[in-house]
Amino acid sequence: MAEDDLPVIEFVAPVPGFPDRRRFVLVRLDDQAPVYALRSLEDPELRFLVLPPLPFFPDYAPEIDEQTLDLLGTRDIERILILLVVTAGDSAAEATANLLAPILVDRDTMRAVQAILGNSGLGLAAPLVPARAGTAAA
Questions:
Q1: Which spans in the chain are helix H?
Q2: What are the tens digits of pLDDT across the range 85-124?
């Protein structure tokens, strides 16, 4: 699918540090791994590496507050796609994910927000270690 054919994700609140960038598309980077680029339509050079939490953090279940749900215009948690922002290191082993500020996208309306999960105890730079099938949740 061409990038022009992808649905536009519209941030309803500014992404921290990028107040003028609200329209993005999600582009898959690798057919073998769930890694995506969240690319700005206003500034093609701006992109964030993102991935869904399940392959790396199967127990990740952030509490989404009512204010955030109001911004997205939904109360249906099942409609929300959760993406973690990845910071790439010099090697794949050094990559980390921001668990404290996930990007939440309403799958139906394509409205999005980067939530800041205050007082959650979650990290800004959690190492990316693939979850192993069959392991019990801690």
A1: 66-72
A2: 999 877 777 888 999 999 999 999 999 999 988 766 677 7
Contact 80, 105 (CB under 8 A): yes
Residue 114 host element (H or E) = strand 111-114
Domain ranges of the chain: 3-127
SS3 92: helix
Model confidence over 16-43: pLDDT tens digits? 889 899 999 999 988 888 889 999 999 9
CA 89 to chain centre: 18
Residue range 3-127 in CATH 2.30.290.10:
yes
Q: Torsion over CA of 36, 41, 42 and 47, rounded to 10 degrees? A: 10
Q: Around 2, how many Cα atoms within 13 Å sit in the side-chain half-sphere?
A: 2
